[in-house]
Design a protein that fits this description.
The complex is a heterodimer of chains A (111) and B (116). Chain A is mainly β and 111 residues long. Chain A is built from no helices and 12 strands. Chain A is globular, with a radius of gyration of 13 Å. The chains are: A mainly beta (111), B mainly beta (116).
């Protein structure tokens, strides 16, 4: 079964520092991987996806994600965090349901 | 980009009443829409898949008589929580996808339901 794991419930980072939100995947066949962000009391917003091609995928709001096949990882990154990046982040992969989501990682960027 | 509009954004109702939530795809047609429920500090749980012109497909454990889904057109799906109880209080989110498995899901802004 397709699945993703987000090992961290919470990530804290100082404003201006680089941030990483981790995701590992377990899929059969070619992996299609997604990152979404959820702000309080809002739906999910699509950030980026990996289908094929370059291992470094650039997305919205300055985020990028690095696909690593040998480590089965798809970590979300941003070179310089903003306070406004504080939100809940979900990694996802297509499965029997339209998307199988990780449990989410809450990112707090501290000024 | 594709936009999914969900209404209302929040609703408070009394126990025993019914509440309807609307989900619209604004600039694309969606033969399939998805309804999720999210508990505090938890991930999204798929409740059902809404199919235009046919019956919805419910996930295991979801009561189809309590959560009525209607998908009457290619741009509108509705979720009606019937005879609501306090335990139905939750955040409900709809989503839709443009054609293709690898197209991203687009989500509505969610509906916060509080049953008193």
């Amino acid at each position: 079964a397709q699945s993703v794991a987000q090992p961290e419930d919470q990530v804290n980072v100082a404003e201006g520092n680089p941030l990483t939100v981790k995701c590992t995947y377990s899929v059969s066949g070619n992996p299609y991987l997604f990152w979404y962000v959820q702000y309080p009391n809002r739906g999910l917003q699509f950030l980026l996806k990996y289908i094929t091609g370059d291992n470094l995928v650039k997305g919205s709001y300055g985020f990028e994600a690095e696909f690593n096949k040998s480590q089965t990882s798809f970590h979300l990154k941003k070179p310089s965090a903003l306070v406004s990046d504080s939100a809940l982040y979900f990694c996802a992969v297509p499965g029997n349901t339209p998307l199988v989501f990780g449990k989410g990682t809450r990112l707090s960027v501290i000024a | 980009g594709a936009v999914v509009s969900q209404h209302p954004s929040w609703v408070i109702c009394k126990s025993g009443t019914s509440v309807k939530i609307e989900c619209r795809s604004l600039d694309f047609q969606a033969t399939t829409m998805f309804w999720y429920r999210q508990f505090p500090k938890q991930s999204l749980m798929l409740m059902a898949t809404s199919n235009e012109g046919s019956k919805a497909t419910y996930e295991q454990g979801v009561e189809k008589d309590k959560f009525l889904i209607n998908h009457a057109s290619l741009t509108l799906s509705t979720l009606t929580v019937t005879s609501a109880h306090p335990e139905d209080s939750s955040f409900y989110i709809c989503s839709a996808r443009e054609t293709g498995e690898v197209s991203p899901l687009h989500f509505g802004n969610g509906t916060r339901l509080t049953v008193t």
